[in-house]
Amino acid sequence: MDQIKSIVGVDHIGYAVKSISQSKEQFAALGYFFDDEKPDILRRVNVSVGKNGGVRVELLSPLNTADKSPIDGYLDKIGSTPYHICYEVSDIDKAISELQEIGFTVLGSPAESVPLEGTVCFLYSTDIGLIEIIDYLIDK
Ligand code: NI
User: 43 φ, ψ to 5°?
Assistant: First the structure.
């Protein structure tokens, strides 16, 4: 299968974690440097991005609210765990239709991620599982 043209490359690995401050300490020991924790109100999570050379991890923990967050299921069943790989795309609408053509199902409409400064969308395939795609508002 040829590479989809709108896929730019791997952007980050998303981790669901119980506590960002605790997880950061162990990631720091593995060589990661983190930006400040920011809330993503829409998804009811806190977010902090860490870099280690060319690899980025996005730590997500539930906001302390009564509402459920999308990562609660992972934390309840598995505990802290990687749960998605995010791909940067050049055009999110085009990427979604191209991914649908090869068997991905779209999970919800594309929506802004304030902490990441881009538009993101989650998709699922039975062969790969969950992926996220991101279209940055500004070229990095
Ligand atoms: Ni992500």
Answer: -100, 0
